[in-house]
Amino acid sequence: MTRQLWTLLAMGMVCLATHGSLLAADQPAAADKLEFKTFASAEGRFKIDFPGAPVESNDETDTPIGKVTYHLLVVEPKKSGESYSVAYSDIGEKSVPNFNFEKALDNSRDRLVKSLDAKLTKEDKVTVAGLPARELTIEKPQEKTIYRWRLLYQKGRQYQIIVAATGHPLGDDRVKQYFDSFKLREAN
Length: 188
Fold this sequence. Notes:
Blueprint: H1 2-18, E1 37-41, E2 46-50, E3 55-63, E4 66-75, E5 82-90, H2 101-116, E6 119-128, E7 131-140, E8 145-154, E9 157-166, H3 172-181, E10 183-184
Antiparallel strand pairs: 1-2, 2-10, 3-4, 4-5, 5-9, 6-7, 7-8, 8-9
Helix pairs in contact: 1-2
């Protein structure tokens, strides 16, 4: 799952920059018993409630604006069939002149859907801390996987907040709680 997520994140972030294996769901009921605790990332400049301690990894890739490092934090609770992630990357405010948030979010959405070979079933334009953002529901029926994705950009940094489930639907209340727990900290 992590390698596939890296590929998807890279495609989405590259797209944003240039335009302005999940666990088997052998016990979906286990997801109802998850306990969420606040995790703060000083480097990432955010905090969020994760259902466990995240595994952190980094990956670097070439983009049209140069090398970009992607930071990924993932929690895959055992026997839940779910995955909770936050990814972020710095592309720099001055890297893209005349940056257009809406176009960048549109292009990121399109790349994610295409790279997953999936179907966009819902999209909402939202704001997070006064910033334009998108919430996406992407389904991959052949794998019985549902992704809920929030994309946003703050001061040269793109954030992606992701929940995925295989074998069972994602509860709207849990996704809302997870997304709403994401809080940005001011950049220095």
